[in-house]
Structures are given as structure tokens and as C-alpha cells.
Amino acid sequence: MQFQLSLTAALLALTGTAVAAPHEGSAFIHDYDADHDGQVSRAEFDAGRVARFKATDANGDGWVSEDEYVQEYSARLEQQLAASDRSTEKKVEERQRQIRQTHVRFGVLDKDKDGKMAKAEYDLSGARAFAEQDNDKDGIVTAADAATTAARQLAARQAADKADS
Ligand SMILES: [Ca+2]
Ligand SMILES: [Ca+2]
Ligand SMILES: [Ca+2]
């Protein structure tokens, strides 16, 4: 059992996935599959994004600041960490890594670098994320699409790691 747990942790570290357990499948589908049919249509995705933008814009002024962005992510991360069976030490590490990446992500999302993530900037990154997940480009992200994308991303990361070392 202990071996299995540390193996899982090692695999998660390798894939750089948040703290989602492998049996949960695609985090993308988990996040946006509102009608629970196991796949995400473009309409479902767009509705989910609108809701998330609103929820992230905590003070309701129409744009998301870096603080608001990190805050929203960190709340979700804490839920995942609370449900995870990793050691306290690993959770501290994971938290630091994820929060650091969230700041980096905000910088990428804020295309015009005015310190604000506008809805248009958010939509742009959403459209890109959906296109990346929808492997066969039919406008619906199925479990097969998500699995193919995950495999492609893993291969790309491994190639990048190799280039680094
Ligand atoms: Ca705001
Ligand atoms: Ca901006
Ligand atoms: Ca598809």
C-alpha cells in the first residue's frame, strides 16, 4: 500500500497534474461537464467559463486582478489538497509549486500586461484550451479526446525535460 501511494505521487509529480487522482479521469471534463454525460460541448464549456470568470472577479468590477486570480485558484487547490492522501510535506511542496505557476499563468493570460485580466483575454485562453482538448475538432471534448491530449502533453513534457537535462 505504501509503495502504491508513493508510486502514485511519483506519477503525479512526473505528469505535473494538480492533485487529481488518475481514476478521476480528465480534470477538464470534471470541471466543465455540467450535465454529467461524460463529455463537454462548446456550449457547456462557454457557460462554465462565464460562471468561473464571474466567481473569480470577487469584487465584481468586470476584470480579474492577479490577487483575485490566485485567490480563486488557491481555494480550489485547498479542496484538492484536503481530499488528497499525500503527506503534509508533499502538500506544502505542491501548494508552493502550484501557486508559483498560477502567478506565471496570470502573466501569460494578461496579454496586454496592464495587470488586469479582461473577459476578452480570458475568452482567448479558453478558446485555446478547448481547441487543445478537442483532439478531433468536432466541437465536443470526449473522454477519448481528453486522453489523447493528455498523452500528447505528457510526451511534450518528457521531451522538454530531456532537453533540459
Ligand atoms: Ca475584479
Ligand atoms: Ca489585460
Ligand atoms: Ca471531439
UniProtKB/TrEMBL annotation:
GO MF assignments: calcium ion binding
InterPro entries for the chain: EF-hand-dom_pair, EF_Hand_1_Ca_BS, EF_hand_dom
Signal peptide: 1-20
Span of domain EF-hand: 31-45, 51-69
Alphabetical UniProt keywords: Metal-binding, Repeat, Signal
UniProt-listed SUPFAM superfamilies: EF-hand
Name assigned to this protein: EF-hand domain-containing protein
Native species: Sphingobium psychrophilum
